[in-house]
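User: Hi! Is it possible to get a structure for several chains at once, not just one? Here's what I have:
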Amino acid sequence: MVTMVGLSLIPVPGGQAPLNAHKGIMADLLRRIAERADPAAFRELYEAYGPRVKAYMMRRGADAGTAEDLAQETLLTVWRKAALYAGDKGSMTTWVFAIARNLRIDRLRREVPWQELPEGRLAEPSGEPLPDEAMAVKERQQRVQAALAALPDEQKEVVALAYLEGLSHSEIAQRLGMPLGTVKSRMRIAYQKIRLVLEGVE
Amino acid sequence: MTITRHLDDATLMSFAAGSLPGSLAAVAAAHVAMCARCRDEVAFMEHLGAALLADLPGAAMARLGPAMPAVDLPRGVPASVTPDEVPAPLVRLVGGSLDAVRWRWVAPGLWHRPLPIGGPGALQLLKGLPGVRVPEHGHGGSELTLVLRGALVDRTGRYGPGDVADLDEEVEHHAPAADPDAGCICVVANEQPSRFRNLLARLLQPWHGL
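Assistant: Yes, the chains can be modeled jointly so their relative placement is included. Here is the combined structure:
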């Protein structure tokens, strides 16, 4: 294992670059990692995703040190598995999310069986994504973000508590003082709305 | 195998979010491994996680050190999903074959096998001879029942291998029984420690029809 610790910090200014700003070249970065193990390409991905993954881990209750470990582990998985993912038309951000989610669960309770990472679904890497595929990925992400933002607060709240705080339905019900069934129906309605948006671009 | 009974969207979302309690997540993972429809839904639901992740304000991180670990070579095409009776996510807990399970007798026609799982909740295999009622433990959170062999039959119809009953405290009990010909082996997850033992006595009457 190689030490990942450096002396300086990645600055996180108030106005961080949206991931979409990198979107056009994400596939290219990944391909450079996959084909040439290009450390410079990895650094760019690390700096784009690392701070967000760390923030995600902290939202899920990890202390700063653990969150940093888990974020580094997440990005190292991207580094090691880039060849499996390069060429897939899926979203890089979704892949990173799934890796981060699984690592967090794994750290919490190693004995829990878990679903395969999205890489398990990638049977046929097909070379460089076409520009329009990259556009579709970008458009989808923007639409999902817009659809999430447009949800009523009560639906946004349960979605965020599940995805970011890691609360189960029962824990959300307890936190918000409402019946389990209400939490579940809010989740369903939120999903149906977003699903409609996604179907528009799939 | 034609799967007709799926996980509820809210359950799938919690699974995709990584927030489903351990025992329920085990059964959900097993169903998703067997069910292309629910795999697709989970893939959609992961995009929500991605959108939320992308919107998070970052936390400052150490920069990368100079050295990098080796990169994996591409592996072959992952084995296609051809679920055996024991879906992949459960193999570590159950073993590779339902015929090798060491059952514990609990009542006439009914056996179980608790499966070790972390966190709150309980996970177990249940095996019922034809016609035997399968205990329900309702009340107190969610319960997932996934059929692995044979079938469960209730008044709403039949649950075959891969079908899942996704119930919570607000769902009316459906009083399932093991298929009158084939019997049933299923895996059952409860969010909260169930009153399984107490319920056995009254749930084990022979099955007398729907």
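Chain B is about 25% helix and 25% strand. Helices of chain B lie at 9-17, 22-34, 36-55, 88-94, 196-203.

User: Great, thank you!
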